Amino acid sequence: MKQKVLVMDDDPAILEVLEMRLATMGFDVTATSDPRKALEAVEAGRFDLALLDLRMEPLDGMRVMEALHERQPRLPVLIMTAHGTIQTAVEAVRRGAYDYLTKPFVRDELRSKIARTLATRRWARDRERLLTVGQALASSGVMARVLDAVAQATVEATDADRCVVFQLDDGRLVPMASAGSPPPSWERLEAAATTAMDKGMPITTSGSLEQGESGTIVAAPLVVQRGPAGALVIETAARLEPMEDDLEILALFSSQAAIAIRNTLDLERLRSGAVAALGRMATQVAHEIKNPLAGLRLYVRHLEQRLARTGDADARDLAGKIATTVDHLASVVSEITAFGRPPELHRQATALHPLLDECLELASARRPTDGLEIVRAFDPMMPRAQLDARELRKAFLNLILNALEALEGGGRLTIATAYSAATGSVTVTIEDTGPGMTEETLARAFDLFFTTKPDGTGLGMSIARSVINLHAGEITVSSRLGHGTKVQARLPLEPVSDSARL
Ligand SMILES: Nc1ncnc2c1ncn2[C@@H]1O[C@H](COP(=O)(O)OP(=O)(O)OP(=O)(O)O)[C@@H](O)[C@H]1O
Ligand SMILES: [Mg+2]
Questions:
Q1: Are 83 and 218 within one domain?
Q2: Which of 22, 52, 150, 354 has a 20 to 30 A CA-CA distance from 198?
Q3: Does 375 reside within a domain?
Q4: In ligand 1, which atom is closest to the CA atom of 447?
């Protein structure tokens, strides 16, 4: 495909000469002396280069350049100027022109400056892109963040209107990250992603105009180890035909995104391995502490009784405080031991809604809920199911407690359930409008003993996850700093053949 050059000059003779010379050099040339026409041309299609005359009435070349850059931000512009206005030309470069040409053109200057502009531009753009993606890859392994950076860099590098990174999750394509404006149709992007993954190579599709779809979609598969793990999809408005250059960039980005996914998966595996090892260690330590603690408790009770007999009230109070502290320690230790050894599930026909209500009541007893708005949105179609009520109570209690702890300054707690007979699963959502989590907290929330609370132990989330996982379910958290936190647990359900609905 020919590269497109826009030329604008108010001198018809120069315009004609330039048009001819550029055409001989193999460019597809649009020449005009009207700034409005120039703007319209860039609006209608993408250019690789623009040559603008600096002094033109009523708009000077500089203002035209700025207007063009609003429409196509990285369009390389060469400003043309007559001798004597070098100062202005320098100013033009400062304001975003790539270079300037002096008129009349010196032999070969035109050709060499154009060649340099096109070559350098590509190189500079590639380097910039790689830098952004490289930084994202080197930063923390929070998958969403890495993919976000990839999507963002893709949009910036390709002039596409949007980029969406899809990831294959349980046989389903899930949009994991997106940048640019929201897509008019997710289905089309998803369909393109599926095709690219099936073919194992980048594909281009154009919307059918009869169906009111405009625009072009380019999708590249993300290949991780054995097979495609998702796809990187970009969409451009109809006027922007993706060029070979764009396809190359897309291929580059999809391979970067694939590396990001692989690294993050590795990191996650490493992290869960480390957590498991830590859990085992914690259990051993807890065991070692358990017996001395029981002894300590006995001695303290004994001491308390003796002090009560001698009538030393102050000393007896102190002994009482020690006893309470030891009790607290013992309960922490028993929680750790329980955590370290995943329990066998004792499933029985369980009604989830009363169980959630019970947790809410328990939690409210521990944390005041005055002034809080509490919303229960329970799915009336929820069947009774084979679940371990005791374990689930622990999980949901911890999640509700976290929400209430986050809502100290007031707000809304929502507990919702949604049953899907089609997938045979229920989603329990516990959402608060509290302060939300920072990225770091979000990344570590499930880590054993990770806490940001002065008297937290950092066990709640780990317990919740281990219980939900034991039920073959999964738990996800999304949180926005300053807006709130949403925890969702999806549990597969085996409905009990019992007509009772809850
Ligand atoms: N709903 C929430 N809103 C804001 N931050 C939360 C929320 N839930 C969890 N967190 C963050 O995750 C961290 C870990 O939570 P986790 O329940 O594991 O421990 P904890 O609440 O600190 O202590 P505990 O073991 O007593 O529950 C919390 O310290 C908090 O920073
Ligand atoms: Mg907690």
A1: no
A2: 150
A3: yes
A4: 18
Query: Is residue 206 located within the same domain as residue 224?
Result: yes
E-strand ranges in 35-75 read 49-53
Say if ligand 1 is within 6 A of residue 453 CB: yes
Q: Let me know the angle formed at the C-alpha of 170 by 169 and 175, rounded to the nearest 5 degrees.
A: 25
DSSP secondary structure code for residue 383 in this structure:
B
Identify the band that residue 267 occupies on the pLDDT scale cut at 50, 70 and 90. Answer: low
Ligand nearest to the CA of 455: 1
Regarding the beta carbon of 400 and ligand 1, being less than 6 Å apart is answered: no
Q: Which of 333, 399, 448, 461 to mutate to test the pocket of ligand 1 (most atoms within 8 A of CB)?
A: 461
444 vs 160 pLDDT, higher one: 444
Per-residue pLDDT averaged across 313-333, rounded? 85
Q: Is 397 in the pocket of ligand 1 (CB under 6 A)?
A: no
Residue 54 Cβ < 6 Å to ligand 1: no
| pLDDT at residue 140 in the model | 45
Does residue 500 belong to any structural domain of this protein? no
Write out the DSSP string of 323-343: HHHHHHHHHHHHHHHHHHSPP
User: What is the extent of the structural domain holding 301?
Assistant: 270-340
Judged by average pLDDT, the poorest of 108-112, 346-350, 476-480 is 108-112
pLDDT-wise least confident of 298-312, 333-347, 356-370, 395-409: 333-347
HEC string for 185-225 = CHHHHHHHHHHHHHHCCCEEEECCHHHCCCCEEEEEEEEEC
**Ligand 1 midpoint to CA 461 (Å):** 7
Look at the pTM and tell me if it is higher than 0.70.
no
Q: Is residue 502 part of a domain?
A: no
**Pair 354, 469 in one domain:** yes
Residues 174/166, Cβ–Cβ less than 8 Å: yes
Name the domain count of the chain.
4
Tell me how crowded residue 239 is: count the other CB atoms within 10 A of its CB: 13
Ligand positioned closest to the Cα atom of 437 = 1
Do you find a cis peptide bond into 221, omega within 30 degrees of 0? no
Does ligand 1 lie within 6 Å of residue 450's CB atom? yes
Of the three residues 264, 296, 314, the one that is the final residue of a domain is: 264
Q: What is the mean predicted confidence (pLDDT) over 27-51? A: 91
Mark the residues whose beta carbon lies below 5 A from ion ligand 2. Answer: 402, 460
Ligand nearest to the CA of 441: 1
Helices (H) and strands (E) in the chain, counts: 13, 17
Contact 460 CB / ligand 1 (< 6 Å): yes
Whole-number average pLDDT of the chain: 82
What per-residue confidence (pLDDT) applies to 407? Answer: 95
The answer to whether residue 313 is domain-embedded is yes
Task: Give the tens place of pLDDT for each residue, 348-384.
Answer: 899 999 999 988 987 887 778 888 999 999 999 999 9
Question: How far does residue 291's CA lie from ligand 2's centre (Å)?
Answer: 26
Do 392 and 445 belong together in one domain? Answer: yes
452 lines ligand 1 (CB under 6 A): yes
